[in-house]
Amino acid sequence: MAVLFRKITINGDWTFAVRSLEEMGRKSAVSIYVRSFKFNLDFLIDENDHPPPEELIYMLSTFLSSAKRLQKLWLVIPGLYTEAFASHFQNVKLVLPDIRTLVVGPYCHFAVSVCPNVRTISVNGHAWRKKRRFEISLPNRCRALLNAARNAPKLLHLVIHEWYVVETLEDVLEAVPGIRNLSLGGEQYEDKLPDLLTVMSRFTNLQYLALDDAIHIKLGDQPTTPGGTLKPGLHCKADYDLPEAGSQYIDPSYCKIVEMVTRACKCLKVIRLGTSARAEIKRHSDGRFVEVAWYFDENHDIVDYP
Fold this sequence. Notes:
The chain is an alpha/beta fold and 306 residues long. 25% of the residues lie in helices and 21% in strands. It contains eight helices and 14 strands. Strand 6 (157-161), helix 6 and strand 7 (181-185) form a beta-alpha-beta unit.
């Protein structure tokens, strides 16, 4: 029984969500044993749609408050109606002290305030900048999430998707200066890497950095190191001469990116580039850079998603 209800997922529309929560309310074991809850109502809104039923919001907050062992929460709601959920959560003073991992869709940043001990916040690929609310497309809308993250004192891991410019990184730095793991994905890096590194170098606790769309990063006037092939675990020395033998291809720009980022971010231990390339940085005891060991894997998320 405990294993059966450890992970619960609700995908669908308002009606399906109401029915699911009603059914869950009739089974006390659900709230007792659930550890991971995914409330994913990521459906398209059209002119014939209607707001969420009032009982749905009440039922959701009631279930969440009763799930005393809940550690992971995934909350995705159509952006047009998130304020109704936010207002209700505030009115009932909902607090989820045991949540450690929080995955939020666009405009669901209000959930951060009810999870005071959250360690990980992720948008899990939801491109906030592409979403519309009240028919207005807003730039840098992750700023709302970052503002909420200011009040998450135990936050260690952050995954966001945005246009990457110096201003965006400045917002991240101001909101979560002590972040340990940072994952950036967003299809476009508008500013050149040397400019981004002027901000990135000020993340004094950063140990893990993921650049999902690294192939699009602009290196500026820096020369690009020739690409090559590597077998998992083979090393790329400080001079970045790549061995010819191997089965995995390293993009010509990747070694240069790692070199530049590593020298700027003194505490960095791991850099992930693209979909599978992972560079582990080796340093002397005094922090000086020695070499990079490259590995290739597909399961590289810093978040154990619900």
